[in-house]
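Design a sequence for this backbone.
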């Protein structure tokens, strides 16, 4: 009996290929708005493609867990009174009733009413982390992530906080992520409208999504950051001086070569003259001898 080879079945769930995280940079500034340098944010946190489905599920679970769940209604058993039958069973022409606290009576109990309960939804930790990274990546893609070195307030003062936010050009609803040592900054920002302060350990996707800007310090920015390399094509003035000096050196070398080239023909000419003089001096005694011989023959 021959074996029939069945075609390979396609998997029911296809794993999508996710693009590589992007490297996004942000200006690192002081509270007066001065730019210190550029910093590359962690790509695995600020450079992924946001997962909207996970964001929706995590935010829904977070809002559901925030519900108190203390609503309560009384059933007919919890209402006072109604122990006696309001009227006899037969002969009145009305529908039979057993208690004035039945749900159909005004003042009676509530049938199937809400009772205290917990609305908490269990969410895996990996989903919570992915939702947080997705929210941070969404704000970073829009250029709505600000980074400062520190909140250098000496005393709690709302006026200083207003000046710092104006220098950083932060508008709309701003989420300021603080560390345990930023108590003075927390008090300075507490009375400002549309400003929310949050400890770094409490950072979550919902508060990021409902804010226009997210402000971190060097101590609270998540992930590892590194200084961005200088942009290509930018020439520093200090680097132009060696090039000029090298050009001058090249000109001097050319001059030296030119002078050396002029000296070589002169030396060759002098050598030729010396050689001719020596030949003449050698030939002169032979000529004298020939003359003496001719004289003796005469």
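Sequence:
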């Amino acid at each position: 009996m021959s074996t029939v080879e069945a075609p390979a079945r396609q998997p029911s769930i296809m794993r999508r290929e996710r693009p590589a995280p992007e490297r996004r940079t942000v200006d690192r500034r002081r509270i007066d708005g001065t730019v210190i340098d550029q910093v590359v944010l962690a790509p695995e946190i600020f450079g992924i493609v946001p997962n909207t489905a996970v964001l929706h599920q995590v935010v829904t679970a977070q809002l559901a867990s925030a519900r108190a769940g203390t609503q309560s209604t009384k059933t007919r058993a919890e209402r006072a009174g109604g122990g006696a039958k309001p009227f006899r069973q037969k002969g009145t022409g009305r529908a039979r009733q057993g208690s004035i606290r039945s749900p159909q009576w005004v003042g009676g109990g509530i049938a199937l009413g809400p009772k205290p309960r917990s609305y908490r939804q269990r969410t895996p930790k990996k989903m919570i982390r992915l939702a947080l990274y997705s929210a941070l990546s969404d704000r970073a893609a829009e250029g709505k992530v600000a980074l400062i070195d520190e909140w250098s307030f000496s005393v709690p003062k709302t006026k200083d906080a207003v000046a710092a936010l104006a220098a950083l050009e932060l508008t709309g609803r701003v989420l300021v992520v603080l560390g345990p040592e930023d108590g003075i900054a927390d008090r300075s920002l507490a009375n400002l409208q549309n400003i929310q302060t949050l400890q770094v350990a409490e950072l979550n996707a919902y508060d990021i999504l409902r804010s226009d800007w997210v402000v971190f310090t060097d101590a609270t920015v998540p992930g590892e950051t590194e200084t961005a390399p200088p942009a290509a094509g930018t020439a520093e003035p200090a680097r132009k001086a060696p090039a000029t000096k090298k050009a001058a050196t090249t000109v001097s070398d050319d001059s030296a070569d030119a002078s050396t080239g002029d000296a070589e023909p002169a030396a060759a000419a002098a050598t030729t003259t010396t050689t001719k003089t020596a030949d003449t001096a050698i030939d002169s005694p032979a000529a004298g001898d020939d003359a003496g011989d001719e004289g003796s023959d005469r």
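The two ends are 142 Å apart (CA to CA).
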